[in-house]
Amino acid sequence: MNRWVLASSLAASAMLFGIAFWLGAAYFQVRRVSTHATRLEHLLQNAPTLEQVTEGLRLEQSPLLAAPVGEAALRDAAARWGREKRSEVMAKGQRWPKTRVFRAGDMIYFLYFDAAGVLRDYLYVSA
């Protein structure tokens, strides 16, 4: 009887630990994505210029990875960093004349600018 109680207690403890670990990981993922989404939405609302965005991200140690010009270069960037959002990268890149790709921590930002160099759209994917 004692061994059964001990085994049951260990199994229950392991199961509860697993659930707690899973919930913590899920929360971290939601928080991580939410932080980047909020950041980019606020940036978009301020309508900064390409130069302002590039300099601001550089100062934050978020390097420029690519400045694709033309459909072939955009397709290469989408293939390299776009992951599951490749078609969205292409669609937005065809809509806006300037695309820049940055690494911002654990995310890749695709930022889209109009002909005047003003930020008009964005997309992000996990690095």
Can you describe this structure?
With 127 residues, this protein is an alpha+beta fold. Helices cover 59% and strands 20% of the residues. It has one domain (2-126). A four-stranded antiparallel sheet has the order 1-2-3-4, sandwiched between helices. Strand 2 (98-104) and strand 3 (107-113) form a beta hairpin. Helix 3 (71-81) runs antiparallel to helix 4 (86-95). The longest helix is centred in the N-terminal third of the chain and has 44 residues, at 2-45. It is elongated. The chain starts with a helix and ends with a strand. The model has no long low-confidence stretch (mean pLDDT 88).
Overall structural class, as computed from helix and strand content, comes to alpha+beta
Roughly what is the average pLDDT, rounded to an integer? 88
Share in β-strands: 15-25%
Number of helices: 4
The largest beta-sheet arranges its strands as 1-2-3-4
From the N-terminal CA to the C-terminal CA, the straight-line distance is 51 Å
How many distinct beta strands?
A: 4
Please write the string of helix (H) and strand (E) elements. Answer: HHEHHEEE
Uncertain spans: none
Return Rg in Å.
21 Å
- How many domains in all? 1
Characteristics of this structure?
127 residues; 4 helices
Compose a concise summary of this entry.
This protein has 127 residues and is of the alpha+beta class.
SSE layout and pairing:
Blueprint: H1 2-45, H2 50-59, E1 64-66, H3 71-81, H4 86-95, E2 98-104, E3 107-113, E4 119-126
Antiparallel strand pairs: 1-2, 2-3, 3-4
